[in-house]
Amino acid sequence: MNSMSSREIYRYYSRPDVQQAILKVSEKREVIGVFKDGAFSTRPNTLRYPKDIMSQVRSGAVAFHGSLERWSNPMAVGSDNYESGRSGWDLVLDMDCKDTEHGKVAVAVFLEALKKHGVVGVSVKFTGGTGFHVGVPWESLPQTVDYRPASEQYPELARRIVLYLKNFSREYLERALLKRWSVEELAEKTGRQVGDIFTDDGIDPFKIVEVDPVLTSPRHLFRMPYSLHEKTYLVSLPVRPDQLEDFRKEDAAPSKINTDTGFLDAYTENEASALVIEAVDWTARQKKAKERKTTRGVPFRRAVPIEFAPPCIKNIAKGLADGKKRSLFILINYLSSLGWGWEEIARFLAGWNEKNRPPLGESYLRGQVRWHMNRKKTTPPPNCSSRGYYEDFGVCTPDEACGGNKKSIKNPVNYAAKKLSKRKK
């Protein structure tokens, strides 16, 4: 839905069920109107009665955004020492994505992660754009953490929880995405280059679905349930977790929705205590841990010939029918890590591409080389154990130098260094 007239917007917010659904979540929150151009109405403000909603709609408000923080007096927010009036806060994970189907997969993964930590009173809401909000209400959180009131530990504690959950869910999300889409499809659907979603150990799932802790910042607002979206005019619609798989964006059209499902209204008191303890402990360990050493390539003075390459690289160099885009990413990072100049790399790739069945488009090939040239640092190809790479398209045939079936070599660059070292000896 691309647009609504002022009369249609007024008619939607005139619905008593919509008004009551918005007011239910507005209690103890700062809530402000948002206009068509994205501008906010005056802060602070709140909604207490249906007439408050309609007054803002008559002034041009299309959407309503509310605070994650709960206040004893929302209208005092912004004054000196206003934080003393914070009575609590809700944990809301913002699943920001370009493809709603990706967001649904991410929501399912995070719901399972929360369940593994004993948190089952979780709410899900379509934002009205393309993403989702996953909410854990204040009542589920422990009221005291490290002998301090949790209400005073916002946003630091919320950020710790979000970062911990991202770390906990990362591998599960990567697997879930690759189970449904290839790397090339994920890149295409997100409008990214294939190389942009890769890391040393696989794809970065948070380049596909961003779960940004920025939502956990002081006085940050989120779109209220049953509010319209100021750009799409779809409803920010709560969705029952068991109905998530069947949800479609069209279900959020104002004419189709009902207000049976709530948001941030299902909880068991203190059920998120284990989650919070794990998040706090994980953060402490992260601070104390030394930076992990990662393979950053070997400083070779000259280009290391392809004869020193491991079997996987040599198999790729013969040309492929499947996995060509991933292999291009592998070759560029392998060769650049081994001292090859960009002209040498471009010539090698042009010859390699002629062996592919069918070849990649020349413009795509040049674009990938140009993208990597403009990067500020050289990174190695994915590690040998990374999912979605060598074994996935049948080029992993380890030899004795690889460690045989044990695969003791971590990265193709390490293999070349090992072989070169033996030659020098």
What would you say this structure looks like, in words?
This protein has 425 residues and is an alpha+beta fold. The protein contains twelve helices and 13 strands. It has two domains: 86-288, Alpha-Beta Plaits; 306-424, no CATH class. It has helices at 6-13, 16-26, 50-58, 100-116, 156-180, 183-190, 273-288, 311-317, 324-337, 342-355, 362-373, 412-424; strands at residues 31-34, 63-67, 69-71, 86-89, 91-97, 123-126, 132-136, 144-145, 148-149, 198-199, 202-203, 209-211, 221-223. A four-stranded antiparallel sheet has the order 6-7-5-12. β8 and β9 (148-149) form a beta hairpin. Residues 290-298 have low confidence and may be disordered.
Task: Indicate the CATH architecture of the largest domain.
Answer: 2-Layer Sandwich
Helix fraction by DSSP (H/I, runs of at least 4): 25-40%
Biggest pleated-sheet summary: 4 strands, antiparallel
Task: Note the run of SSEs as H and E.
Answer: HHEHEEEEHEEEEHHEEEEHHHHHH
CATH class of the largest domain: Alpha Beta
Characteristic terms for this protein:
3-stranded antiparallel beta sheet, alpha+beta, 36% helix, 425 residues, Alpha-Beta Plaits, 2 domains, 11% strand
Outline:
This protein is an alpha+beta fold and 425 residues long. The protein has helices spanning 6-13, 16-26, 50-58, 100-116, 156-180, 183-190, 273-288, 311-317, 324-337, 342-355, 362-373, 412-424; strands spanning 31-34, 63-67, 69-71, 86-89, 91-97, 123-126, 132-136, 144-145, 148-149, 198-199, 202-203, 209-211, 221-223.
